[in-house]
Amino acid sequence: MIKKFGIREVVAIGIGTALFVVLTEVMIPLVIVPNTALQPRMAIMAFLSAVFGPIVGGVVGLLGHALGDAMFYGSIWWSWVIPEAIVGVGIGLFAPRFKVMSGGFDGKACVLFNIVQVIANAVAWIICAPILDILIYKEPANKVFAQGLWAFIGDIVIIGILGSILMFAYSKVTGSSSTLKKEG
Amino acid sequence: MNKLIAYEAKNTPIHRLSGFTKLVFFLLWCITSAMTFDTRVLGIMVLAGAVILIISRTEWRQVSKVFGAVLFFMTLNLLCIFLFAPYQGCEIYGQRTELFHIAGNYTMTREQLFYELNVMLKYFTVVPTIMIFLVTTDPSELAASVNRVGVPYSIAYSLAIALRYIPDVQEDFHRIRNAQQARGIEMAGGHASLLNRIQRTASIIFPLLFSTMERIDVISNAMELRGFGKHRRRTWYAARPLSAADIAVLICAVLFTAAAFAVTFMDGSRFYYPW
């Protein structure tokens, strides 16, 4: 069940967006091909979606991408902002299953998380972004699909590795707030 | 350190406009720019953007960095379009006027140049409005004014928190990065493997994420204690009623958008080609 939209969610959207925007400047360049860097901010968004649910994930993706692009690059590519929100919502829909906050993020949850993120990214970057690029900017189809494919690979790698690490670690730390064990 | 483009208080007609007015103007401007491929409309928008930029007394030092980034990505994108699809323009305009041959399968055509000129103009229509919006809009006032026009105040408040905390989170980020660098963990550079690079990034992002989650707890507890969300409405310290100038700007923006759409789609196609 998805929790109702409370104060924590309001704040999580705000602070999460701020974090997302700040991390826009962190890039892990992939070799050779220019302009195809891994974006750790995607892992942050995936984490926030998995913890706070689809609304927080979607809005952080939408607002964070728009603000981050505007502040660092001076231009907003709406055709790439909307897919970002799709990834956030997609992962967020399964938030209750991940149990990050209660320390229940185990191997099974991690597998589910990665299946969900690959599907969400595929819908966003291979289908949605190129189509919007063609509709809005009338860009050449082969170019936008190549870009979309790159974004897809980059995102599943960074979310798959960094996102999973973050969730494992966070779940372990917050979940084990008590050292008491039930005796058998 | 890396200072972002941010609000600066000044007293100009643009600063005095309500944040809501500027947001609506900005969104309409973006939609128009995205839809139209009419060079005349785009040209007028570029000129209008430049005039507003001057009226808002935006200084070069405020936007120079972002402007450099725009030029870089725009050039890269224009080059990519040509490399991937040298005859995209011919396809769109249904003509082919060859200008000169470059190499292999690449011949420069007038249609391609004209198409890429339009793409370039599209960049320059949006860039000034983004700068104006970020530089002249007070975040608290923006939240208050979007709430005034019916956006639920919890959403308006999220927006206000985001804008308010970007500098704080950025400071946290730089502090953590410096601390990790002092310990010898460099984020970029070197000839490390990809996994190694991700690991190093994680060593900086992880403390940052922790402090962020803590911040979320602290702020939401504080807001809960003060009874945030208890009532259906709330009042805003920074609220300002819409002035006559606001309404005039809103009407102009809507009229301009309608006119731009009319001109663009008059001949049944969003592409304008004079030859």
Give a brief rundown of this model.
The complex is a heterodimer of chains A (184) and B (275). Chain A has a single domain (7-28, 35-173), classed as Arp2/3 complex 21 kDa subunit ARPC3 (Orthogonal Bundle), CATH 1.10.1760.
Structure description:
The complex is a heterodimer of chains A (184) and B (275). Chain A has 184 residues and is mainly α. Chain A has one domain: Arp2/3 complex 21 kDa subunit ARPC3 (Orthogonal Bundle). Chain A is built from seven helices and two strands, in the order H-E-E-H-H-H-H-H-H. In chain A, strands 1-2 form a two-stranded antiparallel sheet. In chain A, helix 1 packs parallel to helix 3 and helix 4 packs antiparallel against helix 6. The radius of gyration of chain A is 17 Å and the shape is globular. Chain A starts with 6 loop residues before the first helix and ends in a 9-residue tail after the last helix. Chain B folds into two domains: 152 residues, no CATH class; 75 residues, no CATH class. In chain B, 69% of the residues lie in helices and 4% in strands. In chain B, strand 1 and strand 2 form a beta hairpin. The longest helix of chain B has 32 residues. Chain B starts with 12 loop residues before the first helix and ends in a 10-residue tail after the last helix. The model of chain B has no long low-confidence stretch (mean pLDDT 86). The interface between A and B is large, with 59 and 71 residues.
